[in-house]
Design goal:
The structure is a homodimer. With about 210 residues, chain A is of the alpha+beta class. Chain A has nine helices and five strands. Chain A has a single domain, classed as 3-Layer(aba) Sandwich (NADH Oxidase). β5 of chain A pairs parallel with β1 of chain B, so a sheet runs across the interface.
Amino acid sequence: MDITTLLKQRTSITKFDPTQSLTDAEIRELIACAIEAPSSYNLQHWRFIAITKPDDKQRLMQVANGQVKVTEAPVTFIVLGDLRAIEKLPNIWGRLVQTGAVDQNFADSRIEAAHRFYGTNEQLIRDEAIRSASLAAMTLMIAAQAKGWVSGPMIGFDPEGIKREFGISDRYVPVMLLPVGYVAPGNLPRKPRLGVDEVLAFDRSREF
Amino acid sequence: MDITTLLKQRTSITKFDPTQSLTDAEIRELIACAIEAPSSYNLQHWRFIAITKPDDKQRLMQVANGQVKVTEAPVTFIVLGDLRAIEKLPNIWGRLVQTGAVDQNFADSRIEAAHRFYGTNEQLIRDEAIRSASLAAMTLMIAAQAKGWVSGPMIGFDPEGIKREFGISDRYVPVMLLPVGYVAPGNLPRKPRLGVDEVLAFDRSREF
């Protein structure tokens, strides 16, 4: 299918077929696509917990405003952003040096630049954790659509409850819940968007 | 091309061919794809300013840490998130009622739910503006890739400078600069990511 058609057919699903599942290999392949999203300084703030077991799905539903889609979808990803992603940079760039992709001086300069850029600016660090995790989540949704699956991104959940129930430490911010699976009947049709020229300006700003 | 291949080939470009341009129709088509990203309550926080004129590109470069790619790419989108997106909901849902897609009671209930959810929680409102604009930006990058163009998302800019230079009011948060165009020689190769099992856990959290 043409990618433009695919993007325009993707819609947020609430009714998943509870009789169909995804294999662990299929779940890994979705993540393999998601992590190809762009990443500031290759920090890769995104982390994913795949919730697939019935008991865990029930616990997830309790902290997701009782929304049953997390129990009916074969997998729901808890998409996290790592607020301390910068600590991984020596590891990440060290591997690039080892493979000869970059030299040590270049790696050091990028790591220093990342520290200068983010510093201790907590708003910027949180913004980027959300931005990066969202870029990965969107990539995951498009990959799922291409494979004939559907997704239904959710922000209606209790972040502290999610962290408590699944033992997620404060270094991670829950950015989204992302059920993925097979479509069932009963979904609402796609909702039209504002027109292109209602959200796009050329060269000058305006009140949109 | 297979979508998975396309996702894995996309990479962030710094060297754009300054001799090639995009038409306004091509720019609009990219936005037509971007706005198909999922949207909380159909709020559509994303807004875009397409910077295409030489003088504007120079001004943009001044507030983007002097990065020349915004002058060499035929278009750079200033991707904004609307912190007051909720004010558009009666308009957005009113149109759905007019077309018969939903009835007035349903529309009213969704608008009320959105107000209950976001309230005056400024962190949540900012988070969602960034999340939504990022989902749209990722969709735009994938659409561009599918059309044979390239992109190079940037967060290295002065948000207040961008707002000042382009007359952007405080209701909008600059989320990203997104140059799009044709690739030129001299780009760095793609950088490998952490492995799937370094960022994915099944059913239980862990320190990643």
